[in-house]
Amino acid sequence: MPLQAFQYAESFALRMDEQDPLRRFRECFFIPEQNGKPVIYLCGNSLGLQPKQAANYIQKELDSWARLGVEGHFQGENPWVYYRKRSKHALAALVGSSEEEVVAMNQLSTNLHLLLVSFYRPKPGKYKILTESGAFPSDQYILESQTRFHGYAPHDAIIELTPRDGKHTLETDDILEALDRHSSELALIIMSGVQYYTGQRFDMARIAAAAQRKGIPVGFDLAHAVGNVPLSLHAWGVDFATWCSYKYLNSGPGNVSGVFVHQRHARSFDLPRFAGWWGHEESERFQMKKGFKPMPGADGWLLSNDNVLGLAAHQASLDLFMEAGLDNLTKKREQMTGYLEFILYQLNERKNVIEIITPKDPNSRGAQLSLFVHKEGKALFEKISEAGVVCDWREPNVIRIAPAPLYTSYEDIYKFAVAFEKALHAID
Known about the structure:
The protein is α/β, with parallel strands linked by helices. It has 2 domains: 3-51 and 326-427, Aspartate Aminotransferase, domain 1, CATH 3.90.1150.10; 78-322, Aspartate Aminotransferase, domain 2, CATH 3.40.640.10. Helices cover 37% and strands 13% of the residues. It has 13 helices and 15 strands. Strands 4-10-9-8-7-5-6 form a 7-stranded mixed beta sheet, with helices on both faces. Helix 9 links the parallel strand 8 and strand 9. The longest helix is centred in the C-terminal third of the chain and has 26 residues, at 326-351. The chain starts with 9 loop residues before the first helix and ends with a helix.
């Protein structure tokens, strides 16, 4: 829908909700309350809301544990020894891959370290990592420690790309130019799929294609991309990726991560990796022999047996994604974020207090707008929080607003705008 078709009016928002084919999914989630009223929850990029069916999914496995004890590993409706396989179909759809290329396991930081063991293979003269500046701190710390582990100084081994003067986001052409210029010394390219601070969605397809032409492994941290934007990791030729499940995937605080490893590496059994029992060839796992034989595909990076209760909560949300349809979610995400953008520009015309630093192009962003506040930013954030808006503040001066199409309504966007307008007047 073009911006000029939007209206800053409650009647318009209610009409959009009536026409929304996904409106019933809001009832599938618990909406937190403040002072006895549902909050305006715009923080799905930090922690997604709880699906009402999550408790039932977890309870089913608790019942199996109570009824079967250890036999639950091989008996019951969902034998635990194979539990991870339940999520493969949905994960493959979400990231654009085959089921062999994905597996749910561990947490994001652990998985990123494990994948770098395999795909960051520095050698003299070719040891550098290309990444974006201002990446999420965990990624920064992981890259620092990985380069040090191999004997290199982070300030020398890590090339951080910064936006042009006066800009907040990176140009794809600048990323590709840096990749080409440094190609002879690069051992790895790793970036966010969607940048956590600015909300910029990187052109993963072009970056991966350029890396392939130079023979450089490329990976992505998809924490803010999975469940948010369409992904085609296999077709793009991405070597590896990892993500968390507690943001847009609504799977619970600190819940299970997932990994993607491209099919071309599925049987690269000589690829260095840290091994664990659960990554050993499944048909021989319980023979308890020495000599690690990795399973084909992403499962070969598994370490430990499945966190069944966590995976049950994860599955409760994944099933909702599959029921809603990924194309439907993408369409609503673009339209809802466009409506939010329209209203913010309307409100800012007179005040000129905020600057939306997230790209305008819907293909260059997801369900997040980052507001660079030029004055009284923390006071503005506190005012809207008091009014029942749940979003988040990122130092030094950014408010992140993130509608989630599964449970955010257009009325939520309108109510946010009313609270935001009052807060702007209050700090004037």
